[in-house]
Amino acid sequence: MTPKQVALVQVSWERIQPSAEAVADLFYARLFGLDPSLQALFKGDMREQGRKLVSMVTFAVKGLTRLEAIVPGVQALGRRHAGYGVKDDHYETVGEALLWTLGKGLGTAFTGEIRAAWEAAYGVLATTMREAARETA
Question: pTM of the prediction?
Answer without folding.
Answer: 0.92
